[in-house]
Write a structure and sequence with these properties.
Layout (H helix, E strand, L loop, with lengths): L11 E5 L9 H13 L8 H7 L4 H8 L7 H16 L12 H10 L2 E7 L3 H10 L8 E4 L10 H10 L6 E5 L2 H9 L3 E5 L6 H7 L3 E3 L5 H10 L3
Parallel strand pairs: 1-2, 1-4, 2-3, 4-5, 5-6
Helix pairs in contact: 1-4, 3-4
Length: 231
């Protein structure tokens, strides 16, 4: 249940990206993308090119990777989804959590923060990732690219704020790509970058992140410092 809040104290909301922020899913994403391209005899996309696009809506990523006129993007998108679904159910499938996440979620909740996710994943993929790591009940709002406009559009942040009663001033987005940072800033929220993901920390700062953390353990105190400025 979302806690009640008076007019002077809106809920504090911490919105996390998923891929590259909570879990290291790059190998799974790259493999699924390459399998989708191979299904249409298309040149294999470079790993760095795929990694750079993680976080964008899938159809946007595919269109950016495709050569003009090379294939029907919708068919490649469908092939990616099929490949990702199949891979996710293999015994050797891995999308490891980044170190320290569980302790940080506990600390943020103890500090009175609401937790949410805003991701370029589809809801089916997000649900599978959360279930894999026993995180299904840890987040109060789940925003995905199949129910909202994708990053860097601020729609997911706006939806999360409406669901929780948070305001732009009481919301922080945590992410590893410039798409996350731009989404946050476009919504009027603040953004914290993480250094272990798929875009360089210098890019995150240039995009407008308040700071970039090197380990999850830095996050709770930093969030409290940011929110404390508004007291």
């Amino acid at each position: 249940m979302i806690p009640a809040s008076d007019a002077f104290s809106p809920p504090r909301l911490v919105l996390f990206d998923c891929d590259g922020t909570l879990v290291d899913s790059q190998h799974h994403i790259i493999a699924a993308m390459r399998q989708a391209f191979a299904a249409f005899n298309l040149p294999e996309p470079a790993a760095d090119d795929v990694r750079r696009l993680v976080g964008l809506p899938l159809d946007v990523s595919v269109r950016r990777l495709l050569e003009a006129g090379a294939a029907n993007a919708d068919q490649v998108v469908a092939a990616y989804r099929e490949a990702a679904f199949s891979m996710r159910h293999r015994p050797d499938h891995e999308e490891p959590l980044f170190p320290g996440l569980r302790d940080v979620l506990d600390k943020l909740e103890a500090d009175g923060c609401l937790l949410g996710i805003a991701t370029g994943k589809a809801r089916r993929g997000l649900d599978a990732t959360l279930a894999m790591h026993d995180l299904v009940n840890r987040f109060i709002t789940l925003q995905t690219a199949d129910i909202a406009r994708g990053k860097p559009d601020p729609d997911m942040v706006f939806r999360a704020m409406r669901e929780t009663g948070a305001t732009a001033g009481s919301t922080v987005v945590v992410g590893d790509t410039t798409f996350d940072i731009h989404m946050a800033r476009n919504a009027g929220a603040r953004a914290i970058g993480v250094a272990w993901g798929y875009h360089d920390p210098a890019e995150l700062m240039q995009a407008g992140a308040q700071t970039v953390i090197r380990r999850f353990s830095e996050l709770p105190d930093l969030v409290q410092q940011l929110f404390g400025r508004d007291r």
